[in-house]
Every structure is written in C-alpha cells, then in structure tokens.
Amino acid sequence: MKIPPRDGPPSSGGATGPPSSRSGGPVSTRMPTSPQSARGPVPSSPQIVGRSITDQIETVLAQFLSPAVRKSVIDCGIRQAKVDPLYAREGDLRRLLVEVKRGVKLFVRDQAQLDRCITELGELDHAAPAPREITIDVRNEEDVLRARSAGRELCIEHLVSDVLQTKIVTAISELGRNIVRYAGNGQIIVRSLTSPMRAIEIIAQDHGPGISNLQEILSGKYRSRHGMGAGLRGTKALMDAFDVKTAPGAGTTVTVRKYLG
C-alpha cells in the first residue's frame, strides 16, 4: 500500500518527539480530507448494473411479455447466470443477457417478434466484442488444429459455454478433415456474428472435385471408406444452420452456424 508523504518539514536528527518539539514551534499539520488521500487510489469497483440493467431488460421485454412472465424470465436468468445483479461486470452482464434470451424463446412464439426481441436485448450489451473473422488455409492435419484453435479463441472471447464450444470445435474438425481428405487444400473461415442473433459461423470452402451425390450422403444411405457422409451429417446435427453449395468439378462450400442465444 502506497503511503503518502508526511506533511510539514522533514524531521531532523532522528528525533521522535511531536512535530512542535523538533522544530522549536508549532507545526501545522493537515489531516487527510478523504480515504483516497490517506490510502492512495481506491481500486476501481465492478460496473454497477443493479436496477439500471434489469430495468432496461424489462423495458425491452415489456413489448413482448406480460409483467408476470417477464419478471420470471429475468429472475430465472439471474439465477442461471449466477450473477449479482447489483455488482455485475461486463462478462456477468453478457451471461445474464444470454440466459434472458434463452427464456424469451420459450414464450415468444412469433418468429419476427422473437428476432426483434433478441436484437434489442443484444443492443444492451454495449461492451460486446465486435464481429471478427479468422481465415485458416487448410492443407494438412496441423492446419485443422489451427482452425480448431481459432474457433476456440472466438468462443472464449464471446463467453460461449463449454457445451456449445465443444460442438463448434467438433464441426470445424469434421469440415477441415473433409477438405484434407477429399480436396487436398482449401480454407476454413471462422467468424463471430452479432446480428440478427449472436452466432459463430464456420465456412469451409475448397476447389476440389465437388460432391456429386450430396442428397444421398445427407440421407445416410451413402458410406465411404473415410466416412465423409458421417462427417457432413454429424456436422449438420451439431449446428443450428447448415448449407452446402457444390457441383462436380466446381468445389464445395459448407456454411454452418451455431447460435449463442
């Protein structure tokens, strides 16, 4: 702890008496005017969220939910996120909003209203990381591992739960290995999205031979020695959005998304 310099003239000769006995006369001393001046700078406190953020959340939810339901959604979100609503840091706030969004999805049935509600809740998180994109050239298994690390990095940055992180990283592995086995080289792009919903998007693209029997593969009827059908079907099962563009001799682009709430 930093100790502030003593007021008044410096002591001389190591005397230990009061200031007046050392200087031959009365010495004016000042008492610290505040705890900060006495003990040095006060450490910064957590961002106080309290009623301000819960009021903001309730204002958004009031457009879509009844008073009783929105109170239940907020209270449940606080419990699930394990935050103290009076002293929440940025990361705590983001977890609370994620849980509130999850609760909203149980009660708002109209998709257009749900999308608008989720977007407005997301706008309350002013400190959310900006959208970011990482591109990895893929030629071998080591590049697949680099792509996995890129996905994990974005997941950590956006406070993605361990369960969702595992699904995202697994999808990157499956798509990356398909590139290595069937096309020889390509790219994996991993990016974070914030609108209309928070998501991690993965794009795996190559200029290989393409897939001539895509529907057969996705139906589960096709089996290859390397398990390509299982890889694509497994990725589709893990993700919330799945799209494949391919043609013989024109390469393949697989785009998938996992929504974060």
Give a description of the structure.
- With 261 residues, the chain is an alpha+beta fold.
- Helices cover 47% and strands 14% of the residues.
- It contains ten helices and five strands, in the order ααααααβααββααββ.
- The protein has a five-stranded antiparallel β-sheet with strand order 1-2-3-5-4, with helices on one face.
- The longest helix is centred in the middle third of the chain and has 22 residues.
- The protein is elongated, with a radius of gyration of 29 Å.
Kindly state the number of beta strands.
5
Largest sheet: 5 strands, antiparallel
- Fraction of residues in H or I helices: 40-55%
Task: Determine Rg (CA atoms, Å).
Answer: 29 Å
Return residue spans where pLDDT drops below 50 for at least 5 consecutive residues. Answer: 1-50
Order of H and E elements: HHHHHHEHHEEHHEE
Which structural class do the helices and strands define?
alpha+beta
Distance between the termini: 43 Å
Question: What global shape is seen?
Answer: elongated
Strand content: 5-15%
The overall pLDDT, averaged over residues, is: 79
* Number of H- or I-type helical stretches: 10
Strand sequence of the main sheet, in spatial order?
1-2-3-5-4
